């Protein structure tokens, strides 16, 4: 899942980027509202984390413009504003949730997970796909209760396909949602990740869990 952090405090911004990447997310960042708004309009982020008090464009204005552009991602607003009407304004403008500064990073992670569940129509941290269970909080996959060790890149592909199960997902869509601007992608990055994922998930003699739809993308088979 790909996130955008729009925060003018360099220390907090860099801390959030490191922490969120360590938690398994692809993360881009912007230091002001103008830069953040441009990025949010260009890329379909799953979650935007937006500080209220931003230079160049106020955070409320960023939220309003993002919603006006039709971008579907969830928005978590960070605010040092204590007045109730400020929080109400943020939610009315299109923010999905808010977190008051100072905050605990664990709570921010929990709120991001909750927003992702809402975005993808899920009620639980766990996604069941046949004998597989993905624990999206712990970034872990089991089959019939036994742990399947996956590298972060493979897990990320599996989680996104699981969240989009039943849909045909293009390679470009996977790239957009799973890799941030710091990642160098080769022409076969997604193909290689899918290949390794199949080796870890499929058993000899069984049909592959991931079907290639030639010229279209990949589909997770839920039978």
UniProtKB/TrEMBL annotation:
PROSITE patterns: OMPR_PHOB, RESPONSE_REGULATORY. The keyword Nucleus does not apply. The modification 4-aspartylphosphate is found at residue 51. Residues 2-116 form the Response regulatory domain. InterPro entries: CheY-like_superfamily, OmpR/PhoB-type_DNA-bd, Sig_transdc_resp-reg_receiver, WalR-like, WH-like_DNA-bd_sf. The keyword Ligase does not apply. Residues 124-222 bind DNA. Residues 124-222 form the OmpR/PhoB-type domain. Keywords: DNA-binding, Phosphoprotein. PANTHER family: REGULATOR OF RPOS, RESPONSE REGULATOR PROTEIN CARR. This is Response regulator transcription factor. It comes from Dokdonella soli.
């Amino acid at each position: 899942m790909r996130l955008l952090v729009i925060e003018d405090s360099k220390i907090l911004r860099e801390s959030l980027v490191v922490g969120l990447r360590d938690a398994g997310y692809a993360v881009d960042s912007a230091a002001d509202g103008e830069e953040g708004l441009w990025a949010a309009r260009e890329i379909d982020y799953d979650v935007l984390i937006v500080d209220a008090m931003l230079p160049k464009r106020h955070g409320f204005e960023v939220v309003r413009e993002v919603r006006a552009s039709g971008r579907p991602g969830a928005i978590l607003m960070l605010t040092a504003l204590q007045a109730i009407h400020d929080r109400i304004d943020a939610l009315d403008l299109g923010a999905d949730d808010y977190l008051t500064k100072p905050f605990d990073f664990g709570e921010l992670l929990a709120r991001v997970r909750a927003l992702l569940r809402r975005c993808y129509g899920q009620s639980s941290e766990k996604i069941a796909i046949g004998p597989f269970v993905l624990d999206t909080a712990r970034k872990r996959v089991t089959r019939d209760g036994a742990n399947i060790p996956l590298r972060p890149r493979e897990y990320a592909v599996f989680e996104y396909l699981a969240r989009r199960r039943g849909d045909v997902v293009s390679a470009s869509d996977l790239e957009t949602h799973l890799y941030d601007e710091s990642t160098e992608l080769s022409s076969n990055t997604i193909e290689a990740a899918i290949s390794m994922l199949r080796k870890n998930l499929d058993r000899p003699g069984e049909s592959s869990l991931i079907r290639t739809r030639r010229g279209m993308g990949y589909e997770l088979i839920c039978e």
